[in-house]
Amino acid sequence: MFLDSSIWLGYFLGNINEAKEIIDNQRKILFTSVISIHEILKKLKKTGKKEKEIKKTIKFVEDNSIIVNLNKEISVNAVENCEKYKLHTIDSLIYSSAIETKALFITADKDFRKTPKTKLIKII
């Protein structure tokens, strides 16, 4: 499973029940885009979390998923996905990273509702 930033944030902020089930399931291999690290950091800082807590949170993401870095192929495919699914650049890079890993992409972001191999989860 490839987790979007929204799923990690739902886990840490407690507003996506299903995120806890997915992330705490030790039998699943989880992937995360390096871009999601940026998005998670940014959101946690914006919500007023302390630096120590933010570092602990990012360490948790790194310890519980495989971080997927960008490469040329992902970048090129992201251009096509931007056009095909009307995604913003950052979203397209994250989605294209998921496609590269051949994992199911899990998100709470409705911008991905038309993308294949995607599971959309509701925020409570």
The string of secondary-structure elements, in order, is EHHEHHEHHEE
Q: Order of strands across the biggest sheet?
A: 3-2-1-4-5
How many DSSP E strands?
5
Which class of secondary structure composition applies to the elements? alpha/beta
> Which second-level CATH architecture applies?
3-Layer(aba) Sandwich
CATH superfamily grouping:
5'-nuclease
Number of domains: 1
Shape: globular
Q: Over the alpha carbons, how many angstroms does the gyration radius reach?
A: 14 Å
| Low-confidence spans | none
Question: What is the assembly state of the chains in this entry?
Answer: single chain
Helix content, binned percent: 55-70%
Measured between the Cα atoms of the first and last residue, the distance is 21 Å
Number of helices: 6
Q: Could you tell me the CATH topology label.
A: Rossmann fold
Mean pLDDT: 95
